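Quick one, tokens below. Sequence please?
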């Protein structure tokens, strides 16, 4: 089975750790994995996208438009920006958080209203969650990324234990408990 997953967000939200965890899960399952990270202006709150492809044999990390099985979005506007990459019948897992981009901060633009509702109206299979609130419940607001991975994990059909093992192997010990809890909260989330 092949997996084509795109992770999108804003610089500083943990998209790169999420891709590292996802890659680790696939490698632990014995799959060939390719990851490509595009940082953009990530250090200034800009868009960040990571492609993660896994399967028996993967030749390129790049996912073309209309080929992503799952898009994991850490911010609403990023969901809209990368939606064309989701394949028909794919799943968009999105945080409900809004982070104003620079044009909105400077007053040159207005943050669009009802972004996720408009995406859902297109017939897209969307799972929207307040991952920030779940991360806070887990004990670390920076674990939004792991909450979203937990939600997406159910749609990948992979066992929870392989994810927990990857978290244990990847996350520094002082953040381990909060991230393990964040994953479980995401995995058990009901939309």
């Amino acid at each position: 089975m092949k997996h084509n997953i795109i992770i999108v967000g804003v610089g500083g939200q943990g998209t790169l750790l999420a891709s590292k965890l996802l890659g680790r899960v696939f490698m632990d399952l014995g799959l060939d994995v390719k990851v490509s990270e595009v940082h953009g202006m990530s250090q200034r709150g800009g868009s960040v996208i990571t492609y993660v492809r896994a399967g028996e044999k993967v030749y390129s990390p790049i996912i073309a438009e209309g080929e992503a099985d799952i898009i994991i979005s850490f911010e609403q506007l990023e969901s809209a920006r990368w939606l064309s990459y989701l394949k028909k019948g794919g799943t968009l897992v999105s945080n409900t958080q809004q982070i104003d981009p620079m044009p909105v901060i400077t007053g040159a633009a207005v943050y669009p209203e009802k972004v996720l509702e408009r995406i859902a109206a297109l017939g897209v299979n969307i799972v929207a969650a307040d991952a920030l609130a779940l991360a806070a419940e887990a004990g670390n607001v920076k674990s939004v990324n792991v909450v979203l991975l937990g939600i997406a994990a159910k749609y990948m059909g992979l066992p929870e234990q392989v994810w927990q093992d990857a978290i244990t192997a990847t996350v520094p010990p002082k953040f381990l408990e909060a991230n393990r809890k964040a994953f479980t909260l995401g995995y058990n989330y009901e939309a």
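The longest helix spans residues 173-187. Residues 40 and 157 are 31 Å apart (CA to CA).
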